[in-house]
Design a protein that fits this description.
eight-stranded parallel β-barrel; TIM Barrel; alpha/beta; globular; binds phosphoenolpyruvate; 40% helix
Length: 252
């Protein structure tokens, strides 16, 4: 398995390019000479072209992409444009986009296809809501999200995918998923991938955990839940805390 991936999802923050560059610089300073971890910074689209990494092991990612390459789609940003700006990764299907912007599994499937076609590695977000969890529908949700989101993705293309298990109830709530439960969910995701593609692909796919990750719990997900990395929201906006998370994971 490749080295762990720590993805910083800055969401709609900070509000100026100068602040964004300062945050990046402080994080880079904080994790100087860290090896064995790949750090992906996903700032808002408008800051992507203003980012240059000084530290090694840092990569650029976007928080979304559109499925068409170009055309009359006001306000959209295509996967090809992101590739041209130096992005290597793109987050697809984040629950905040599903919730606030009514993004559907069908839209997600098209974005997945477009991202791979453009040479980006999609970080495909899946996870159950609080209601689905309460009603015992968690596994059905994961199954459905995977089969719908990867509907048009062939095995060869699926090699580029990273899956982020992000229970919606754990995002930004300070209530992370139990480590044991996370391990179980990742094994289920691998089973689904095995059934859909092959044992080899299911073993090789990187699965990340996301949802209220802190420097206190980060390593537990890597060691205890055997996750291949983390998707970090709130804590990625605090340079010191995020650097600590990266340092913790580098111990794995
Ligand atoms: C996220 O935005 O994907 C996320 C996991 O957020 P947080 O770390 O704040 O829970």
């Amino acid at each position: 398995m490749k080295q762990p991936l720590i993805v910083a999802n800055w969401k709609c923050n900070p509000t100026t390019l100068a602040e964004a560059q300062k945050l990046l610089k402080t994080i880079e300073k904080g994790v100087k000479n860290i090896k064995k971890v790949e750090v992906v910074i996903c700032p808002p689209f408008v800051y992507l072209s203003g980012f240059r990494f000084r530290a090694s092991g840092f990569r650029l990612g976007a928080q979304d992409c559109f499925w068409e390459e170009k055309g009359a789609f006001t306000g959209e940003i295509s996967a090809k444009m992101l590739k041209g700006l130096g992005c290597k990764y793109v987050i697809i299907g984040h629950s905040e986009r599903k919730g606030h912007l009514k993004e559907t599994n069908e839209m997600i499937a098209k974005k997945m296809k477009a991202a791979i076609a453009a040479g980006l590695k999609p970080i495909f977000c899946i996870g159950e809501t609080q209601k689905e969890k309460r009603e015992g529908q968690g596994l059905r949700t994961l199954n459905s999200q995977i089969s719908k989101g990867l509907k048009d993705i062939k095995e060869k293309e699926a090699r580029n995918i990273i899956i982020a298990y992000e229970p919606v109830w754990a995002i930004g709530t300070g209530k992370p998923c139990e480590v044991d439960t996370t391990l179980t969910k990742s094994l289920i995701i691998r089973q689904v991938l095995k059934k859909r593609y092959s044992l080899s692909l299911s073993r090789k796919t990187r699965i990340l955990y996301g949802g209220s990750v802190t420097s206190q719990n980060a390593l537990k997900y890597i060691r205890g839940a055997k996750m291949n990395g983390l998707l970090v929201g709130g804590a990625s906006l605090k340079a010191q805390e995020f650097s600590k998370i990266v340092k913790e994971v580098s111990k794995s």
